[in-house]
């Protein structure tokens, strides 16, 4: 009698891929915001939530389309604010870049406020004229001053 080919559980597929890719489980659980126990629990499941499969795939840069096709054929769930619930490594990286960019803009804004205060305190000095000139240039060409314009002319 021929042996029946058994289909692997999705949790077992995850476990094998993580082992094959030498994934550090501690780092993975931190990135997932889950415990090791949660992760080991996933390994025993026949079906794993597609959001988790996609999120793990994004973090470890692995495409599970071949091993778990339903993870990529099911429509992802959308949250209240139309945000996609699952996250890929790429989207996490884009969010990090966006946060860094916004943080830099806030820092620029603080620096400009300080310069404005300094200019107001130096009523007739050359520093006030230089700061006013800078503000005029920023107002006329704001795109030139977003994170790229430096005093030494380098970009």
Describe the structure.
- The chain is mainly α.
- It folds into two domains: 10-73, 434 Repressor (Amino-terminal Domain); 90-145.
- Helices cover 57% and strands 0% of the residues.
- It has seven helices and no strands.
- It has helices at 10-20, 25-32, 36-42, 50-60, 70-73, 89-121, 126-140.
- The longest helix has 33 residues, at 89-121.
- The chain starts with 9 loop residues before the first helix and ends in a 15-residue tail after the last helix.
- Residues 148-155 have low confidence and may be disordered.
SSE inventory with pairings:
Blueprint: H1 10-20, H2 25-32, H3 36-42, H4 50-60, H5 70-73, H6 89-121, H7 126-140
Uncertain segments: 148-155
Q: Globular, elongated, flat, extended or rod-shaped: what is the shape?
A: rod-shaped
CATH architecture call of the largest domain: Orthogonal Bundle
**Helix content, binned percent:** 55-70%
Q: Brief overview, please?
A:
With 155 residues, the chain is mainly α.
Keyword list:
2 domains, 155 residues, single chain, rod-shaped
